[in-house]
Amino acid sequence: MKGQFPLDKFLNKETPFYYYDTALLRQTLQTIRAEAGKHDNFSVHYAVKANANPKLLNIISMSGLGADCVSGGEIQAAVNAGFAADKIVYAGVGKSDWEINLGLDKNILCFNVESIPELEVINELAARKNKTANIAFRINPDVGAHTHANITTGLAENKFGISMNDMEKAIEAAAQMEHVRFTGLHFHIGSQILDMGDFEALCNRINNLQQQLETHHISVENINVGGGLGVDYLHPNRVPIPNFKAYFDTYAQHLKLRPGQKLHFELGRAVVAQCGSLITRTLYIKQGTHKQFAIVDAGMSDLIRPALYHAFHKIENLSSDGSCETYDVVGPICESSDVFAKAVDLNKTHRGDCIAIRSAGAYGESMACQYNCRKLPQGYITEEL
Ligand code: LLP
């Protein structure tokens, strides 16, 4: 056992694999339940895109959270894992007909609609089934977030949502259609956000929009503020559970909910990032001209975040307490961007050592691919080791 890792149980496992600490996941879910539960009418959905491993989905669904899905595949995975259909919301700029039909057949809570052409298709497909789809409009609030450019979504230049100027036109269009029912507004400004001021800015924007709608006698039953709460990638041991209290309190304090209005959240990363690590083994130590490389058996096909966003993940050698040396930790894939970290200090590593790449529970396994004809990594939870 090193830190919280059952190293002895890793020894007979083929690497690389994801390891999920379910005690931490349960504690995180418990914290979410306690903190959100302090506020009337707060409803939390888990953003399935962060990690759709069925074993995690089961634990999360049992904790009572709803699900936020972005594809038919995710709707199916959520239903299979026991999420109640009436707690499933479905967003995405490009919903295919079969995906909309699946949502209609399962009677999901809400379609978050991103354009008027999409609204027309949902209305038509619902009419064929003689159903009425609950819809919310995803509004692009043009609020920036202090995070990586690839993961901000709420700026006017992004492809997401309907612009604020077109909001009323969209609501009026829905009112003319028989098979959709307008039930709310949906927003999402970005991901890995640690500055509560960004969420406060979203609250202020929503307050103004609500006022504007009320002058036109339009009322809204549901407000969905998306997700985005970040985690501490630098200190996974010191801050294993994000500050959910500050997050929910920010909305309670700044968003002016109307009586009876329900507030929905779609949290992904904050739920699962810290409970997951990618476990890999050192294959070779290679001396370069000015540096040494630790070549490990995981690659960017298993965890793409460092290559795609230059994301930082803390790396630890679980097998050694030897004095620290500096390495570039790289994978076996034929791409120069297949690098997990440059110039990091690790306890001296040898061939066969187990290495943990931390905070990899969100957007790790779910973004893995088979580039170079590699196998997809397995995911193990504590109980099954
Ligand atoms: N709701 C909507 C509409 C979203 O687009 C997203 C994430 C979420 C909720 C969940 O956001 P979270 O709470 O996890 O921040 N692959 C990137 C992150 C992409 C996020 C996309 N949208 C990464 O690895 O950092």
Detail the topology: elements first, then pairings.
Layout (H helix, E strand, L loop, with lengths): L6 H4 L6 E4 L1 H16 L4 E6 L6 H9 L3 E4 L2 H9 L7 E3 L6 H10 L3 E4 L2 H13 L4 E8 L21 E2 L3 H9 L4 E7 L9 H20 L6 E3 L19 H11 L7 E6 L1 H4 L3 E12 L4 E5 L8 H5 L5 E3 L6 E7 L8 E9 L6 E4 L20 E4 L4
Parallel strand pairs: 1-17, 2-3, 2-10, 3-4, 4-5, 5-6, 6-7, 6-8, 8-9, 9-10, 12-14
Antiparallel strand pairs: 1-11, 11-12, 11-16, 13-16, 14-15
Helix pairs in contact: 2-9, 4-5, 5-6, 8-9
CATH topology-level fold name of the largest domain = TIM Barrel
CATH superfamily of the largest domain: Alanine racemase
Small-molecule binders: ligand LLP
Main sheet properties: 8 strands, mixed
SSE order: HEHEHEHEHEHEEHEHEHEHEEHEEEEE
Structurally, how many domains make up the residues? 2
The CATH architecture of the largest domain would be Alpha-Beta Barrel
Outline: elongated
Please state roughly what percent of the residues sit in beta strands, choosing from under 5%, 5-15%, 15-25%, 25-35%, 35-45% or over 45%.
15-25%
Tally the helices.
11
> Structural class, from secondary structure content?
alpha/beta
Uncertain spans, ≥5 residues at pLDDT below 50?
none
Name of the level-1 CATH class of the largest domain: Alpha Beta
Rg to the nearest angstrom? 22 Å
By DSSP, the count of extended strands is 17
**Helicity, as a percent range:** 25-40%
| Average pLDDT metric | 95
Give the terminus-to-terminus CA distance: 13 Å
